UniProtKB/TrEMBL annotation:
<keyword id="KW-0547">Nucleotide-binding</keyword>
<dbReference type="Pfam" id="PF13581">
    <property type="entry name" value="HATPase_c_2"/>
</dbReference>
<feature type="domain" description="Histidine kinase/HSP90-like ATPase">
    <location>
        <begin position="33"/>
        <end position="163"/>
    </location>
</feature>
<dbReference type="GO" id="GO:0005524">
    <property type="term" value="F:ATP binding"/>
</dbReference>
<keyword id="KW-0067">ATP-binding</keyword>
<dbReference type="InterPro" id="IPR003594">
    <property type="entry name" value="HATPase_dom"/>
</dbReference>
<keyword id="KW-0418">Kinase</keyword>
<keyword id="KW-0378">Hydrolase</keyword>
<keyword id="KW-0723">Serine/threonine-protein kinase</keyword>
<dbReference type="InterPro" id="IPR036890">
    <property type="entry name" value="HATPase_C_sf"/>
</dbReference>
<dbReference type="GO" id="GO:0016787">
    <property type="term" value="F:hydrolase activity"/>
</dbReference>
<keyword id="KW-0808">Transferase</keyword>
<protein>
    <submittedName>
        <fullName>ATP-binding protein</fullName>
    </submittedName>
</protein>
<dbReference type="InterPro" id="IPR050267">
    <property type="entry name" value="Anti-sigma-factor_SerPK"/>
</dbReference>
Length: 173
């Protein structure tokens, strides 16, 4: 279950946000345990949210990107194997969790994943026979833009975002 939310929107900041915060008309967030089943939970949350915003036709691309961002956060952002984490977000301390936020504005949808690592996301040069290592390349291919930034102040970690045009016309910048 997700919530209406603005926290990641505020943390991302105007300089990094691919949509004008004043124009956002929909925002929903969910806290995820750093466990493998969170990828499915993130996709389900995305499906429900896009359906409620009447953007269901964008689900396939957005769900693929959300899955890759959450998987990347699980593999590289939690700092220890996901199997070692306790179940449920309430069992976690402080910033040691993952969070997904979806935001919708005129002509653009943005998804943001927060994880506790400050290490930059790095697209891997995957071998053609490798079974993994293409996540950020898929994010790059299926979204219209993506980026990241470290959190500042007392917050630790980073935000990785991807944006999608939701209409055939270019988004207002």
């Amino acid at each position: 279950m997700g919530t209406e939310a603005t926290p990641l929107l505020e943390e991302l900041g105007h300089d990094y946000l691919p949509v004008d915060p004043r124009s956002v008309f929909g925002s929903a967030a969910i806290t995820l345990s750093p466990r493998p089943e969170s990828v499915r939970q993130a996709r389900d949350f995305t499906r429900r949210t896009l359906h409620s915003w009447r953007l269901a036709e964008h689900f396939d691309s957005v769900a693929l990107v959300v899955s890759e961002l959450v998987t990347n956060a699980l593999r590289h952002g939690v700092g220890r194997p996901a199997a070692d984490w306790p179940a449920g977000p309430r069992a976690l301390r402080g910033d040691s969790y993952l969070k997904l936020q979806l935001m919708c504005g005129p002509a653009r949808l943005v998804c943001v994943v927060r994880d506790p690592s400050e290490a930059p996301p790095r697209p891997a040069e995957a071998d053609s026979s490798a079974e993994s290592g293409r996540g950020l390349r898929l994010v790059e291919c299926f979204s219209d833009d993506w980026g990241w930034r470290r959190l500042r102040g007392r917050s630790r970690g980073k935000l990785v975002w991807a944006s999608f045009l939701t209409e055939d016309r270019p988004a207002d910048d």
